[in-house]
Amino acid sequence: MNKEIDALNVADLTYNEAGLIPCIVQDASTKDVLMMAWMNAETVQRTLDERTTWFFSRSRNKLWHKGEESGNVQRLVELRYDCDADTLLALVEPAGPACHTGQNSCFYRSFDL
Amino acid sequence: MNKEIDALNVADLTYNEAGLIPCIVQDASTKDVLMMAWMNAETVQRTLDERTTWFFSRSRNKLWHKGEESGNVQRLVELRYDCDADTLLALVEPAGPACHTGQNSCFYRSFDL
Hints:
Two copies of one chain form a homodimer. By secondary structure, chain A is mainly beta. Chain A has one helix at 41-50; strands at residues 4-6, 21-27, 33-39, 54-57, 62-65, 74-81, 88-94, 109-111. In chain A, the strands form two sheets. In chain A, strands 3-2-7-6 form a four-stranded mixed beta sheet, with helices on one face. In chain A, strands 4-5 form a two-stranded antiparallel ribbon. In chain A, strand 4 and strand 5 (62-65) form a beta hairpin. The N and C termini of chain A lie far apart (29 Å). The model of chain A has no long low-confidence stretch (mean pLDDT 94). The interface between A and B is large, with 42 and 43 residues. Chains A, B: Zn(2+) binds at residues 83, 99, 106. Chains A, B: In the C-terminal section; belongs to the PRA-PH family. In the N-terminal section; belongs to the PRA-CH family. Chains A, B: Keywords: Amino-acid biosynthesis, Cytoplasm, Histidine biosynthesis, Hydrolase, Magnesium, Metal-binding, Zinc. Chains A, B: InterPro entries: PRA-CH, PRib_AMP_CycHydrolase_dom, PRib_AMP_CycHydrolase_sf.
């Protein structure tokens, strides 16, 4: 994949009406898509500063450091954004399973085609 | 990645207040994440029935068959859903670039770490 480094500011991303932006999390080594969660401007900045993923929990209405309880932190390798700057893609090195079910990825089920 | 086939109905997915669910699109061969777009129940069903991605355009407020104009359709290989059933992951074989800029993936820019 081509890669360009831009001097975009965290504030220049496009957030939704709730101030959130979706972040897809992909394993940097296996390229498996692990999960999708939401960030606000503060957790985007923390993720960049601390090189570990932080999200905003819509159900608990609070910041959430991924792996804080489980130990399965995700070390940030790269943070990409899309052409509209309204979706993020975090490439990470996960310390353990991303899913609360214990599955490596939250996307472990498929529709029957 | 483990894989389970479930008899989930399209209506059983969790849609947001606007009746939409985010869908991550990944190249089934290269595993590059290509784009993220929104589906409603009707476009999830069409995607499954026609084995090509359909989305709901929030800006144009209409159904959108990916590649309809550009020819860059995405043949559906697998449609996964996450543990909460509120996010989809479509594995596809793309006929051409996913991004309107001509880039293969919409995620061609990164923050400078």
